[in-house]
Amino acid sequence: MTDKRIYQIGLTMINGVGDMLARNLLQSLGDVEAIFNEKQHLLEKIPGIGRTLAAEIKHPEVLLRAEKELTFVERNSIATYFLTDSHYPLRLRECADAPVLFYFKGDTNLNQKRILSIVGTRNATTYGKEQLDLLIRELATSFPELLIVSGLAYGIDIHAHRAALQQQLPTVAVLAHGLDRIYPATHRETAVRMLAHGGLLTEFPSETQPDRPHFVKRNRIVAGLADATLVVESAEKGGSLITADLAFSYGRDVFAFPGRATDPQSKGCNELVRQNKAGLITSAADLIAALCWDIQTTSAPKQASLLFEEELTDNPLLRLIYAHDEIHVNTLALELDTPIHQLSAKLFELEMEGKIRSIPGNRYKRV
């Protein structure tokens, strides 16, 4: 019996098939194995596929390459996360352009209760580093399980990882290359330390070089994994602003440290605040309050009253919300096959009745 991971990896290795088309194939055929077993003339009829892509799917080289990659994965104790896996990060799955599959090596929970992405310039100033050190130190005091996500790049990224490790917080780096290398090589020691308290994550298979487009592409994962993205310092243009824009487009919270108007490494942060894309923070307390992390919630009772159980049975929207710790409005719309504008009124009514509450990032949770 063929290991299902070969088909999952193979889906990401088909020339011309990106994450969106891969999702389309999964929705059309229901199972990743069925994609490769389907007859070519039937594949051609799937919207967006056609004759050329159908031929690419049936090319025998695809699964041979996938089998080779699986050998590398198993030899190096790497985990694969496929979009339909139960352990796939819930926050990331909510993003329409989330990777169909990614590779992870490390030891942490990617569905941690609280996750913060931290990005910024590669030319970090003393001011930026000091602000970041203080923020992570204060956050670690209140939330020792907080997961810090960044990109292992020079400047703010590597400083965020090292500050997290110093405070014994788990930290994950999203890479722009395969797991057979570390870039930049000068950060290898930190990356190795992260394997025991966090990890390394990438959507790229082994032998993938750290090309410029890959850095831009990986930014959506940095933004999608977290509850919020913090931009510590940024010039007027840069990858951290792309990450901030992506987080904003996902309905996630974005924050930025302010800087002097004349400081070139603060122009990006100041512009995010000016455009109302980011909330201004000056301390961990600001961040905690904005994300409502300071609100203590009691555990929900394991068994509701019989009356409420009947309501859960009769109300699929309420039942779906109560089946999750928290759930994004896009997921609700997808699961219930209902337009968001129709859901909004029902969600508002349930919130007014005290049965659910909204939380930052267009998400809802049980009360």
What does this structure look like?
This protein is of the alpha/beta class and 367 residues long. It folds into three domains: 1-75, DNA polymerase, domain 1 (Orthogonal Bundle), CATH 1.10.150; 115-290, Rossmann fold (3-Layer(aba) Sandwich); 306-366, Arc Repressor Mutant, subunit A (Orthogonal Bundle). The chain contains 18 helices and twelve strands. It has helices at residues 4-11, 19-29, 32-37, 40-43, 50-57, 60-75, 90-93, 126-142, 156-166, 188-196, 212-224, 239-249, 267-274, 284-290, 306-314, 316-322, 329-336, 340-352, and strands at 79-82, 101-106, 115-119, 147-150, 171-174, 198-202, 228-231, 253-256, 279-280, 327-328, 356-359, 363-366. A nine-stranded mixed beta sheet has the order 1-2-6-5-4-3-7-8-9, sandwiched between helices. A three-stranded antiparallel beta sheet has the order 10-12-11. α10 links the parallel β5 and β6 (198-202). α8 (126-142) packs parallel to α9. It is globular and about 60 Å long. The termini are far apart. Residues 297-308 have low confidence and may be disordered.
